[in-house]
Specification:
2 helices; binds calcium ion; mainly beta; four-stranded antiparallel β-sheet; 42% strand
Length: 356
């Protein structure tokens, strides 16, 4: 009860729009990409970046962009194509890299695959599909974000594919957050006996997924007209989509708010007007010490970088910086450097630089 009250209060405080401010940092462009979707920072320096049309790119630390062979066949259509890229927790030893994508010639399903990166040969070898959404099919809203937990489990957002209803059906992997083993099979100990891969349900289009320093899992998802959400993801919870939302249908018809259905977990933050969040990183680095303990979110429609501070039972937006471009992804490296990936054509991969 207390948690719900605190959450409601935080939502009230945070629901007023924050005006985008000038950045208190500079940035330098490392490379330019074409419709990039996600990035992973390589431990030896450099990056892997996905482009929606299907290229997996290696960006060297000096900014050279190289194409890696062996990426999957994808369908580049509207919101879908090649999506997330994530390094296995044991990447330094195994070289394993995970990708998500939608392939219209294979039922239009969201796919999760992994292969072994050979940077010397610029190749992703032995890429295998290790999970595929069932039932297959759908439209946009792929979700498709990967996060590895502290215990090595693979968490995956599976969007509702613009269908709504499947998000409430346990036997349908769309509109869910899944908890899988590193090989793509359902993890043991998941909350639903009849849906062994499902961790949480009632999601719309989660484009951000990350663990914080205390091991809590955070996800954001885009609302319909209004009602973008930041959620703490806890086993077995139902986040309410499409039955409740702080937004409206595109037709303008209202949707009941989360408060009308206490069995659904309410968002920690809701944004109306929307920020259209994409990508998220937990920051605990040394380069921007005043941001330690924050979540950094990209904003598409808001063309912003958004900083959220998190408490034990609350989260609140503290900064919204005007980046002048739609932001697709955010990442931090082990040294505390922060990288931001723009969205769209001729999009830049930026490194933030402290102002002083
Ligand atoms: Ca919700």
């Amino acid at each position: 009860m207390m948690r719900k009250l605190v959450t409601a209060l935080a939502a009230l405080l945070s629901s007023s729009a924050i005006a985008a401010a000038q950045t208190p940092f500079g940035f330098e462009a490392i490379a330019t990409l074409e419709q990039p979707w996600a990035m992973a920072v390589l431990p030896q320096g450099g990056f892997l970046v996905t482009e929606k049309a299907g290229r997996l790119a290696h960006v060297t630390a000096s900014g050279e962009v190289q194409t890696i062979a062996g990426a999957p066949r994808v369908t580049d259509d509207g919101q879908v194509g090649l999506h997330d890229v994530a390094l296995a927790p044991d990447f330094q030893a195994s070289g394993l890299v995970y990708l998500t994508w939608v392939d219209g010639t294979d039922g239009g399903a969201l796919h999760l695959g992994r292969g072994r990166l050979d940077l010397g040969a610029l190749q992703l070898a032995d890429l295998q599909v290790i999970w595929r959404a069932t039932p297959m099919g759908g439209n946009g809203h792929p979700g498709a974000m990967i996060a590895f937990g502290p215990d090595g489990h693979l968490f995956l957002t599976s969007g509702d594919r613009q269908l709504g209803g499947p998000a409430q059906e346990l036997g349908d992997s769309r509109g869910k957050i899944l908890r899988l083993m590193a090989d793509g099979t359902p993890a043991s100990g998941n909350p639903f006996a009849d849906a062994p891969e499902v961790w949480t349900l009632g999601h719309r289009n989660p484009y951000g997924l990350t663990f914080d320093g205390t091991g809590r899992l955070w996800s954001h998802e885009m609302g319909p007209r209004g009602g973008d959400e930041l959620n703490v993801i806890a086993a077995g919870q139902n986040y309410g989509w499409p039955l409740v939302s702080e937004g409206k249908k595109y037709s303008g018809r209202s949707i009941p708010a989360h408060a009308t259905r206490p069995e659904f977990a309410p968002p920690m933050i809701e944004w109306t007007p929307v920020i259209a969040p994409a990508g998220m990183a937990y920051y605990d680095g040394a380069v921007f010490p005043e941001w330690r303990g924050s979540l950094l979110l990209g904003g598409l429609a808001s063309q912003a970088l958004v900083r959220v501070e998190v408490g034990r039972d609350t989260a609140w937006e503290v900064d919204r910086w005007d980046m002048g471009k739609r932001i697709r992804d955010v990442a931090a490296d082990a040294d505390g450097q922060i990288y931001v990936l723009e969205d769209g054509s001729e999009a830049r991969l930026l490194r933030l630089t402290p102002s002083n």
